[in-house]
Amino acid sequence: MKGKRNEQKGHIHQFLIFLIVVTLLFPSIIVFTATATGTPYYVSTTGSDNNPGTQTQPWKTIQKAANTVTQGDTINIRAGTYHEKITLTNKQGTSNSWITFQAYNNEAVIIDATSLSGTYDGIFHIQDGCSYIRITGFELKGTSGHGLFLQGGEINHIRIDHCTIHDCESSGIYAYSAGQPTKYVRNIEFDYNTVYDVNNGLSYSTSTWSPQEAISFSNVQGFNIHHNTLSQYGKEGIDLKSGSNSGSVHHNTISTSLAAPAFQWDYNHIGIYVDGFSRKGYDINIHSNTITGYGGPGIVIGAEHPESGGCLEDISIYNNLIALSYLEGHINFRGIDSCYDCPWKNILIYSNTIYNGDSSNAPLRIFPSKDNIDNLQITNNLITGTAYTLLCFQTLKSTETAGQVILSHNLYYRYGGTGHNLWSDGTDKSWGSNYVITDPLYINKNQNNFQLQSSSPAINTGSTNTAASNDLLGITRPQGTTADIGAYELAQTSSDTTPPAITNIQIRKSTPIDVTIGWENITCTTTDNIAVEEVTFILVNKNYQTTTYTMIKKTGTNTYYTNLSIKQAGNYSYHISAEDTSDNEASTTTYKLSLPPNWDINSDGKYTVLDIVLISTRYGQTGNPGWIREDVNNNGVINMLDLTYSSDYYNDCWW
């Protein structure tokens, strides 16, 4: 068989020479159809910056890649520990051609700056003029400053996701508009990251922290901070300051707890802080966050310098669980708090569950006075705790609410005694309208389970008009006659038998399809009459091995997606399954997906003379590695190596 194969190869090579001669003599038969796309580059701890940056000859440093990239390029960083800081200046992608720095195939990539000096400006320092850049899948650690620093007057569309950031003396990420107030860092997404032990450059002797915060956005216009886990940080956790606007903070899990001795003097260890400072902070949504711990207040809003124009407008705080325990000797704190008598306009606080185990402070405190409040709404909240005072209006009288403050449909309860409200004109002046004072019957507050028991008085006693349309878990409101009070809506699963609906299934493959550098993007639309719990993509390979991928929901839509990189040629089958919060399930029919090997140029399942002709007609052309299938070995040039490599498979079938 081997002799026959070699005999075939000899005849094939003679034929190839003939084809090449014909091509050179009659160039008009060549048709140029390929379009250039971004280049994949590679970095490895065993590489060299004198290499071309290919998969087989990678660079050694990420900075070399950062100096080289242009729009659409992807930097694949191989496993290992890198000791460097990376600076990006005037690197611009487009909305369809992002520049991506990623851990190759989810390999463990650590960028450790512990041994480096001068890293205050970040392990990744993204400077003025950068746009459409994604950084994903890294562990960043050991810096005397920030994990990432976005600094400039015009930085646009940056995404940081699936990174672990820790051991930073200043912020895990600091986004700062240097050209303020007229220029911004814009459209920043920070999602699915784990951040801990940051802003830790404290001095116990002087009781001072590093100057920034764990996740610090200063004068940023357009942001989406979501699905992050944050713990063990100094000062504020997520800080939106100095006029940051037009963004959302949602589905983050934050622990305010901090190890001794720092907690003994840390007076502002806040979960989420909105600080207009000396500008207007506006159009900000804070929702669906879970904040627990004993280190400080849950959510605080204000403007530290109202005398210089600091104010807040269009701020919505809803569907948050704030459950704060108490540690003896710790500084006092509140669930939702405000600071400074600054102007507030259109401030909405609704559908939150607040529990404060600190017996010295109210779970909810409002600071601004009558002249500084223009439409404050506090509705559908569970306001509970152990303090004597549950509701505090620091400078507002109970007689000054008409036309300015709506206080309604809240449930109040003090564990261990009678709760009270406090206004600037005295105690127990007003709880608002349509309120309830009774035990909300949490399932188990001692284990941080603040969902409602089926007999809870908070069920069907809220106002649907002022409740969030979905609860913290995504359950549609209302389930009953009216909305439940608090962050959780009790799902009435017994009557729901309608499964989710899965539609609009699409697969977008890389062009060309390639088992070495290719990828597949799968999307679908999934809806449910109550709420979708999970959507999964199930892939079966030619050996009947099954792999399940959890699909990610695109924020603000009913679209779910997953991205794959399939490296084995063959025929696959797949289907999509969905489950709702009532445990109803739905699955699609089974579909087929074929991924041809690189040598099957025309994807007909067999290597024949037709594939040889296709390679030969492209002979001598160059482009980005793998830019067309005729570049069989993905080296960026079509030559005899492609013909020789592919001819080994003559007459072979792969399906």
Description:
The protein is mainly beta and 655 residues long. The chain has four helices and 50 strands. The strands form seven sheets. Strands 1-2-5-8-11-14-17-20-23-26-29-32-35 form a 13-stranded parallel β-sheet, with helices on one face. The longest helix is centred in the first third of the chain and has 24 residues, at 2-25.
Briefly characterize the structure:
The protein has 655 residues and is mainly β.
Residue-averaged pLDDT: 85
Number of strands: 50
Low-confidence stretches: 1-36, 203-207, 261-265
Instruction: Give the DSSP E fraction (strand runs of 2 or more residues).
Output: 35-45%
Characterize the biggest β-sheet: 13 strands, parallel
Q: How far apart, in Å, are the first and last alpha carbons?
A: 21 Å
CATH class of the largest domain: Mainly Beta
* CATH overall fold name of the largest domain: Pectate Lyase C-like
The count of domains is: 3
Strand order of the largest sheet: 1-2-5-8-11-14-17-20-23-26-29-32-35
The rough form would be described as globular
